[in-house]
Write a structure and sequence with these properties.
One of its GO terms (cellular component) is cytoplasm. The protein has 106 residues and is α+β, with helices and mostly antiparallel strands. The protein is 33% helix and 25% strand. β2 (37-45) and β3 (50-57) form a beta hairpin.
Length: 106
C-alpha cells in the first residue's frame, strides 16, 4: 500500500521541523516498523511551507492503527505548535491521488 499526502509547517518553523525529525524518537520508529511501514519520506516546499509525504506500508489497516498509539499521539502533541493541526492535534492532511508509479526491475 502506498500513500501520499500534504501537510503544512508554519513558515518560521522549517528548521525546527527538520530538527525534530532528525531526532525522531526511537519508540515512534519502533511503532512505525511494527505496523508495517517500510518507507516514509517527507519533503518541504520552502516557498509554500507545504510538506509532501510519501509512504509504503503493509496495508491500510495497519497504517491507521499507528494513529491510535500513545507514542504517536504524544508526537502529534509535540509537533502541534509548529504545524497546521486538527482539533485532536493530528496534522491537517490532504490526500493525494497516485497518478503514476514505476518500480525498477519489475
Amino acid at each position: 500500500m502506498r500513500k501520499a499526502f500534504k501537510m503544512r509547517v508554519h513558515p518560521d518553523q522549517h528548521d525546527e521541523y527538520y530538527k525534530r525529525h532528525q531526532e525522531l524518537w526511537p519508540e515512534l520508529l519502533a511503532v512505525l516498523n511494527a505496523h508495517g511501514v517500510v518507507t516514509y519520506g517527507i519533503y518541504l516546499d520552502k516557498q509554500s511551507s507545504e510538506l509532501f509525504a510519501f509512504l509504503e506500508a503493509s496495508d491500510e489497516e495497519q497504517w491507521e492503527r499507528v494513529a491510535a498509539t500513545a507514542i504517536n499521539q504524544k508526537w502529534w502533541t509535540y509537533m502541534a505548535p509548529i504545524m497546521d493541526t486538527n482539533s485532536d492535534q493530528s496534522p491537517v492532511t490532504i490526500a493525494l491521488d497516485e497518478m503514476f508509479f514505476i518500480k525498477g526491475g519489475e
